[in-house]
Specification:
This protein is an alpha+beta fold. The chain has one domain (43-220). Helices cover 38% and strands 25% of the residues. It is built from 8 helices and 10 strands. The chain has helices at residues 2-24, 59-64, 66-70, 90-95, 104-111, 140-152, 188-198, 210-220, and strands at residues 26-27, 40-46, 51-56, 82-89, 114-123, 133-138, 156-157, 160-161, 173-182, 203-204. A hairpin with a 4-residue loop joins strand 2 (40-46) and strand 3. Helix 1 (2-24) packs parallel to helix 8 (210-220).
Length: 221
């Protein structure tokens, strides 16, 4: 029993060290060349375990993600200000709309291996500054690259992105099949970090948690 506890303690210490190094070591290691004027303002939204990217809605964004309207998401509504995108584990995302509904099987899949989904939410005005909101200004080129990255995360069927029928928390969100697999090492926050690097920002080398992603971006952006 003592050996088991020693092994678990070493495992926790190794994970803590990896998370610390993943936060402190920047990715990319060197800053990128100076970009154009930051005319596009994007947001990173976080809760204790998850991060999303909020993209301001304009006509170009509506055209790019027209399939959302086809699935009944009212992206043309006058009050719509942001499309909020997140990537995550299928079982946990779909079966845990609130913490009170947490189940063992989705947690087990999230810690091992699960299929992935994209969650898209429609939001009105989002207050800044706010402890759970971080805003960044990027140029048009990187904004387009970020939209490409988000779009490429949707799994494509014969008619485009594949909406998951009767899945959603409210009237203004949808779930779609996504590319890639979710696990404890490659999760929702590493997806967000990769998206932000595509947008020309720097993150930590490995950011499995919202707090480590937030710290790394505070250090380097």
């Amino acid at each position: 029993m003592r050996k088991l506890w020693r092994f678990l303690a070493m495992l926790v210490a190794a994970a803590a060290l990896a998370a610390m190094l993943g936060t402190l070591v920047p990715r990319p290691l060197l800053p990128a060349a100076a970009a154009g004027e930051g005319t596009r303002h994007i947001l990173v939204l976080r809760n204790p375990i998850h991060t999303d990217i909020a993209i301001p809605v304009d006509e170009g964004v509506r055209r790019r993600f027209r399939f959302l309207a086809d699935a009944g998401l009212p992206v043309d509504a006058p009050a719509a200000r942001y499309l909020v995108f997140g990537w995550g584990g299928r079982a946990f995302y779909l079966e845990t709309p609130t913490w009170s509904e947490l189940k063992a099987v989705p947690v087990l899949k999230a810690l091992t291996l699960d299929a992935s989904v994209m969650h898209v939410d429609l939001a009105g005005a989002i207050a800044e500054p706010h402890p759970d909101v971080a805003g960044f200004d990027i140029d048009e080129e990187h904004f387009s690259a970020l939209l490409d990255y988000i779009q490429s995360s949707f799994q494509q069927g014969s008619n485009g992105p594949m909406v998951i029928v009767n899945a959603g928390y409210f009237s203004f969100d949808r779930f779609y099949e996504a590319n890639g697999h979710f696990n404890a090492l490659v999760g929702c926050n590493t997806w967000t970090a990769a998206a932000l690097r595509t947008a020309g920002l720097r993150t930590g080398w490995w950011n499995p948690l919202p707090v480590s992603l937030g710290w790394s971006m505070w250090l380097y952006d």
